Amino acid sequence: MRFARFVHPGGVSFGVVEGDSSSGLTVAEIDSIPFNEVRFTGQRWALADIRLLAPIFSSKVIGIGRNYADHAAEMGNEVPKEPLIFIKPSTSVIGPNDAIRIPSVTAHVEEEAELAVVIGASGARRVDRAGAEKAIFGYTCGNDVTARDLQRKDPQWTRAKGFDSFCPIGPWIVTGLDVSDIEVRCEVGRDPENLEVRQIGRTKDMVFDIPSLISYVSHVMTLLPGDIILTGTPAGVSRITPGDTVSVSIQGIGELRNPVVSLD
Asked: Which domains are present in the chain?
C-alpha cells in the first residue's frame, strides 16, 4: 500500500494512495495513523486537489554515511568498517514540493538521493536481523541535503546536515516492497520539465544492507514508530543552488520534488 499524509479542505489526514498515472491517482482518507488497522472514512480526493506533506511524524532521522563505495570514493574516503551514523533533527524534515532553503552561512550545498526506511509500530531496541526486518513499516524517498563546505569544516556533521528544510521526505510510504535491488535516481535543473541526471545507483550496492543498519542503530538508540533511517547515497552528488529543482526518484516508490530557494 501507499500511505500519504495530506492537507485537504477539512484539515490534515492520512490516506491510502490508489490508482496509477494512466487512470489518475486518488487519496482515500483513513481514520488513524498508518500503523493501526486501516479503516477508510469514505472521503476521497483526487491527488491534484490536495497537498502532500511529509508522510510520517518522526522523532528523529538517522543518516548513514558512505554506504555506497562509489560515493565514499568520490568524497575521497574509505568505506567504513561499520555503519557511520549521524542524526538529522525532526525540524529538518519537509515534504513534497516544499522548498529547500539555503542559508547564507554556506556557499556549497549538495543533494543526496537516498532510500528511506520507516520504522513501524513495534519500534526497535537492540534487535537482531530478524527483529530488524519485523521493525520495517515501509519505504519512501529521502534527500540528505548537505552543506558540504560546513561538513568539511566542522569536526562533526550536525550543522552541515541539520538546517531546517535539509531533509525532504516523500511523496508517500510504500509497504511490502522488495528493496534488495532497486534504482535510486536524482535529477537537478533550472527547468522543471528538463532536469539533468546527477545520480543513478542501485540498492544492491549498499555496503551494509537494511537489516544490518537497523540492528546496528537499535543497539545505539531506541528506534520509535515513524523514525526514519536514510540508507546512504550513490555517487554523483553535486551542487544545488537557488532556482534549481531537485527530483529524487526510487523504483517502486515514486518521485520527490523540491525547489531550491535562498533563505536570506
From this structure: 2-53 (2.30.30.370), 61-262 (3.90.850.10)
